[in-house]
Amino acid sequence: MKYDKISGFADEIAEGVDTQFRVLQKLNISYFEPRGIDGKNIADLSDEEAEALKEKMEQAGIRVSSIGSPIGKIRLDEDFEAHFRKFQRVVEVAKKLDARYIRMFSFYRPAKPDSAEGAASGAERETAQDWSAEEREEVIGRLRRMTAYAKEQDVVLLHENEKDIYGDTAERCADLMKELSCEHFRAVFDSANFVQCGQDTKEAYEKLEKFISYVHIKDAFLEDGKVVPAGAGDGNVEYILKSLLDNGYDGFLSLEPHLGSFAGLASLELDDKMLDLPQGGEGTFTLAYRALEEIVDKIIE
């Protein structure tokens, strides 16, 4: 690999961090994006567990590229104060692990009554997905408060475009960046997630390029949203990476393969279409790495 800032969600290799680090070392990857650590979410680690993780990182020569947190992945009608406390805890864990970046999201819409969802169809469903002005203001208000705290603590929030949250489309991601972008609130660019929202990733890239500080590496098909190795789908991954690198990008490229099932996957997805995939692990993570390596080595000759 002709690029050294490669990272990844190593919990897609295995639940246990020892196995995660063994495989990362085999692939000469020196960073990871911690999310699942020995069966626990990174946000739920105790001080002792965070310290033990830091010790294992030092022994393995692995550093954190960004905390793969679940922050912002709740509905607007859920308890934000409790969630904000979890966010503060994530910041504490990030500092213990010497991580300045924290991946996060921009909230789901309030739950709809089952009867209303069942009655909606066609254009009615499309309208049901629109965000009201009040919901938008609530999202931005929450993120503004979190960004202010991030500034106090000198960490950087990285907003990931994710299907069904406020910032799922390029337009709404650009809206968030227009309102909030600063050195403590920046964008993750995830091609596969944009594809799964029916977005043209080249257009999304043009809208968001100046805000991108981190990249997730995965690809997908427009037809059915199936996740595939980088370069094999409709995400224009090679085009986007070449544009970024040609324009001086020197940030992380973080593998999020999603090519097989892994511990915690069910809690990350709103639907079950990924649960039928083959068992994930070292093989699928390595496949994702090799696909990225081929693209990067072609770009950097």
Put simply, the count of helices is 12
Structural class: alpha/beta
The major pleated sheet works out as: 7 strands, parallel
- CA-based shape: globular
Backbone CA Rg: 18 Å
Average pLDDT rating: 91
- Please bin the fraction of helical residues: 40-55%
Contiguous runs where pLDDT drops below 50 for at least 5 residues: 115-128
- Alpha-carbon distance between the termini? 11 Å
Order of H and E elements: EHEEEHEEHEHHHEHEHHEEEHEHH
Largest beta sheet: what is the strand line-up?
1-13-10-9-8-7-6
Strand content: 5-15%
Report the count of strand segments: 13
Walkthrough of the structure:
With 301 residues, the chain is of the alpha/beta class. It has helices at residues 17-26, 47-60, 80-96, 114-119, 123-128, 133-153, 170-180, 191-196, 201-208, 237-246, 265-268, 282-299, and strands at 6-8, 31-32, 36-37, 40-41, 63-64, 67-68, 101-104, 156-160, 185-190, 212-217, 219-220, 227-228, 253-255. Helix 1 (17-26) packs parallel to helix 2 and helix 3 runs parallel beside helix 6 (133-153). The protein is globular, with a radius of gyration of 18 Å.
